[in-house]
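Example record

The entry below shows one chain as it appears in the dataset: sequence first, then structure tokens.
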Amino acid sequence: MAAPLPRTGDTGSAPDNDQNIYRLRLYHTHTDEHIDIVYRKGDTYLSDAEAELDYFLRDSRNGTVHHYDPRLFDLLRDLTEAVGRPDAEIEVVCGYRTPETNHMLRRRSRRVAKHSLHMEAMAIDIRMPGVSTKELRNAALDLHRGGVGYYRRHAFVHVDVGPVRKW
């Protein structure tokens, strides 16, 4: 596992065209919230921005917040670049899940993992308007940076920063 980059409290804005600026635009389908945030500058993760993203990706069923692995944010940004939509807003279907939420979802579907990386804040389920689920899945697989799940029927892709695998 790669070590996270340094953090700082600076969340000042900078031009989007600066290749050292790492930005995410997200829409959460369950909370109806949007976020457009610079979370990293160069090799430094911005701690205030990380805290905002952690809150944004909280368990939407009970509001519990967990600190996310920042490599997931890099993966999401790289996915937007890989599909040729670097400014795209990613739709979040599911972010962090408490063990209780995960257990409840497991009772509803056998496709929910007992030891889901959602509970470790290392996984996210997403879709990207204008990009097919299949194209998004293929781009994630090509990045070779963690797990990739393809949920064609429900039109979303699971990505995580755990071991490389697919389903």
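Notes for this example: The helical segments are 47-56, 70-82, 99-108, 133-143. The first helix runs from residue 47 to 56.
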